[in-house]
Amino acid sequence: MNAQVIxxxxxxxxxxxxxxxxxxxxxxxxxxxxxxxxxxWVAVIxxxxxxxxTLLAVLTGLTEKMPPVDLVLFSWVGxxxxxxxxxxxxxxxxxxxxxxGFFVQAALMAMIIFK
Length: 115
Fold this sequence. Notes:
Elements lengths: L1 H16 L2 H30 L2 H9 L8 H21 L2 H22 L2
C-alpha cells in the first residue's frame, strides 16, 4: 500500500511537470518580480565591470591607453544613481554591493595613478 502511494505521488508530480498551463501560470505569477530584481542586479554588475578590463590591462602593462573619461564618468554617475536609489529604498544589500564596487574601482584607479 505504501508503494502505491509513492507511485501515485510520482505520477502526479510527472503530470504537473509536463502541465503547460501550470508552467504558464507560474511564469506569469513569478516572472515580473524576478525579472525586475534580476535586471537591477545585472545592471549594477555590468556598470561595475565596464571599466575593469581596461584598468586591469593598464595595471598589467598590456596597454598604456586609459579608458575614456566619459565612460568612467558615466559609469560612476550611473552607479551613484543606483546607490541613491538603494539608499532611498533602504536596501542594505544593494548599498553594500555598490559601495564595495566603488571601493574596488577606486583602488584600481589609485593603483594605476600611483604606480
